[in-house]
Amino acid sequence: MNNFRIVYSILLTFGIHFFTNAQTETTPKVELIEEKKSKRWLLYAQNNTEQEQEAFLMVQGEGFRRSADRPVIKKIPPHSKILMITLIPLKGVTPTYTKVFTYETNLQTISKRKGENRKEYVNIRPIKDQEFTVFIDKDCDKCKVLTTFLNDNHYKYRILNTSKDHQVKEFMFDHLKTASYKGGIIDLPVIFFKEKKHWSIIDIHQFIKTYDWKLLERK
Hints:
This protein is an alpha+beta fold and 219 residues long.
């Protein structure tokens, strides 16, 4: 009986050690966790290590309330989970998204990944307060409605396409920092005019109807 107990103890210890090692090997240091709720999808970065990690996430989605996103970088404390991005699905559609997710103890290459320090990034012509500037995307229906209205009424405006160059999107988000924008995905079109910024316009037709177009010059 004593021999049996000794063998049992050895096997039990070995089993616990094996399970712990297997769990350690299969569990990523930092992982992206998706929680789908009825009205929103929450994307978390979970740190499974003993050290603080820095997580990078960029999402491009379709079928959500907002269609454009800037990269999110957050520090994740040891053994904790931090919300990175909230996605709000539209009713009646099947939402999908693609993502770029990575992590390091110190993300030294993020600035290059975001497009900073590149010639084309810094050489975009500055925003002029007197110029009606519109940021669009090639698949944005609201953008098409707005630009069609502007063209039909011969208004002067500047258009910047975020789907052609990633640095254009970064340029837009950098300017949104000066407004009440707090981060996350936004809905295009985005409009800058006379120090006022408009984004995530829910009803573009209502916006066109109520906006004071007298301030714009005509071609």
